[in-house]
Each structure stands twice: as structure tokens, then as C-alpha cells.
Design brief:
Length: 195
Amino acid sequence: MRPLALWLPLTACLALLPGVAWANAGVPMIFITLPLMTVALVPIIALEAVILGRSLGLAPKTAWIATAVANALSTLVGTPLTWLALVVLEMLIGGGGSLLGVDSPAGKLLSVTWQAPWLVPHENELHWMIPAAALVLLAPFFLVSWAVETLVVRKFVPGRAARETRRAVGIANAATYCLLAAATLVWLSRALAAG
């Protein structure tokens, strides 16, 4: 099933549930993070292909194909499924309400970590909360990308030791996620300065 095909029924269900479909229902961060990650996909593939090619001694074509397939799968399937699992976890542990507030530093920190998958609508604070939550979400997205991409890359280099492949994919993902984190930090600092 395509990612869009997953979101259409979910969106329709949410719209049909009057207790959930308020105008101030919050910010589902997948609709912000997934498009941004998709735009970044080509430079990410390029950088990771170079790193994997050098780390594993792959021919450039093999490195590009393996990296492209791995990143497409981790971005278009792994990221939405990770986000969905995080939203369910957020709701199960009580993060779906506006109980925390953003009046104190602790409340602000909890709001953008505990509620990062689906931000509670603190309208006057969303300018900085969205990039802060995006930064928080990079950690679980990194872990899932590393796992998914390791499985895919291993199919392209079956003669390599699993540990060697896992390490190379981890280094490639660490490099690209550090760049994503740096870009998100710039976004956050600009949002806070504009505040």
C-alpha cells in the first residue's frame, strides 16, 4: 500500500470523529517532516552512496542503487510507520492532552518531546515548537532508518559480514542525520529569534 493510500483513510476517520476533529486538534508532525525528508532524499542518497561505497568497497553503481532503494524504503515507509507508532505511544501515555502547558521551561521541554509526534496546539508557541519537535523526531527516525537500510543494503552485499554492513550504514546515516539536525537547528534558532 502506498503511503498516501495509508493517510487518506486515517484522515477521513479523524474527520468523522467529532471528539477528535476539532479545528485545534494539533499538528501531526508527519505532514511537516515527511515532505521535508522527501525533498532531502536526493542529497542524502548522494552522500550515503559515497560513504557506503568507500566503507564497503562497492562499485559506484551498486552503492547508488543500494542507497537509493534503502533510503526510499526507510523514508516513505519506515518514517510514517515510526511516526504512527509514536503517536499511538503518545496517546497511550497521556501525551494527547494540553495538560503540560508551555508556561514553564519544563512544560516547554515536555511539550516538544513527549508530544513531538502530534503537537498540542499552543498557537502562540508553534513557531518554535514545530522545529523543536522535528529535531526530537530525528532520533527515532534515525534508528528506524539505520535498521531498515541495513536490511536493504545487506541484500546488495550478501558476502559482507552483517556487523560490517551495519556499521557502514550507521556511519552513513549518522552523517546525513547530523546534517538534517544542523538544518533543523538553524530553523529552530531562526524561529526563536523571530519569536
